[in-house]
Amino acid sequence: VSTQSTWDIQKMWKMTEEKKKSKPWNWDFFQNPKKQTVHPPVKAGTRVGHLQKAKRRCKKLQDYRQHFANTGMRAQNFIRDSEPSDRFQDHPKLADLIKQKDEVLRKRATPPMYIKADLKNFDLASLGKFDVILLDPPWPEYRRRAAGLPPESIKHDLDLTSWTIEEILSLRIELIADTPSFIFMWVGSSEGLDLGRSAFKQWGFRRCEDIVWVKTNKKQENGTITSCFTEDQNSILRHTKEHCLVGIKGTVRRGEDAHFIHANVDTDVIVAEEEPYGSTQKPEEIYHIIERFCLGRRRIELFGEDHNIHSGWLTIGKSLTSTSYDQKSYDAWFKGSLCYPQVQTYEGGRYLGTTPEIELARPKSPPHSQPTPSSTISSSTMPSLTNLAKPNLPPKQKLVSCFLHLSLIHISEPTRRYAISYAVFCLKKK
Predict the structure, then answer these.
(1) Other C-beta atoms within 10 Å of 270: how many?
(2) Is the pLDDT of residue 117 over 90?
(3) What's the rounded Cα separation, in Å, for the pair 74 and 324?
C-alpha cells in the first residue's frame, strides 16, 4: 500500500470516529424502522440540493426481491394501475371503447344457466355447438399445491380430486366446438403447459395465444399465502403465475371477420389477487377478456363452481349446487340472424353485434390487399427495377430505387431517401 493510500485510510478512520462521538447511533430507528426521518430543508436549484434529493430518492427505492424474502410480499403487488377500474385513466379513448363494449354486452347477455353433472359421465354432444369454450380441468398440480395445507384451512366444499391426463383427453370437446370457435383452458404453471397443447391437437384446435395471470398477495396476512404449504414440490422456483392457453378451430381473419372477433382490445396479462388456501378460483377478468374479444354468444364453461356462474354463460360442473338448464329456452335465445343494435335484448341472434362508434374506436389491422398507413409513397411514384438497367442513372439513385421498391411495406419511415442497412431491412421484413 502506498503512503498516500495509507494517509487516506487513516484520515477516513479519524473522520468516522469523530462522527461517532458527535452523532451517536439512533437505536430508535432500528426498533421502529417505519419511523420517518425528518430531513433539513434543502435550498432548491443548488447542486447540493439535487444530490441530497437523489440520495433520499434512492433510500425510498425498494429491492423487491429482498422485500419478498423479508415480508413475503410479491413484487407484482407494487404494479401501478393494475385494477381494471384504474387501468385506463391515462387512455380516455380506450376507456370509452371498453365502456361502450360493456354496455352492449350487458344488454345482450343471456340469463345464466348451469348444470350440476359429473363430466366423466355427461353427454356433451347433447348441448349443441358453442362459439367459446372455457375450462379449468382439475390438474394434478392443483392437488400437489394444496397437499400440505392443514385440514381446518381447506374449504369444506372444495373438491381437490384431480383427473389424469387420460381422463382430460377423453372429454369430447370436439363435439361441442363450432367452426370457427375458440377454447380457453387454464393449465397451471407446470406440466399442464405441455399437456394442454397435446389436448388442443386431439380436440382439433391450434394454440394461438397464451394469457398469463400474475398473482398478487396484497390481502394476505403478513404478505404470505401459506407458501410453505402451497408450493409445488416438483418446482425449483416459486410459482406466482398461471397460464391460460387459447386455441382456435377453423380460420378467422381480423380484418374480414369483425362480426366474430374484435382483436387487440385487451392485453394477455392479468394482474389479480390469488385466492388463499389452495383455491382454484380464477380471476374475474378472464370473462371480460373473452367477451370483448369473441362476439359469439354461445359460451360454455366446464368444471365450474357456484362462483363461476355468470350472465351469458352455460356452466357445467360437479361442484355446482343445483341445475337451471332448459335446452328449449336456451336454444331459442340464439335463433335468427339479427344482432345489436337491431336487437337490444338477449333474445335473438347468434352474434353480439356492434355499433359504428365501437368500429371507429377499436384497434384494427390493415387489409392485406392495401399498403400500410406508414407507406405514403404510392407504387406509381416509385422507381421501378427497370431503372437499374438505365445507364444514365447514377449508382446512388440506382441503389435507392432498388431498396425503396423492395421495402415499401416494411419501412416505417416513408420519407427515407437513402438506402437502409441490411439489419434494419431484415427487421422490418420480419
Answers:
(1) 23
(2) yes
(3) 41
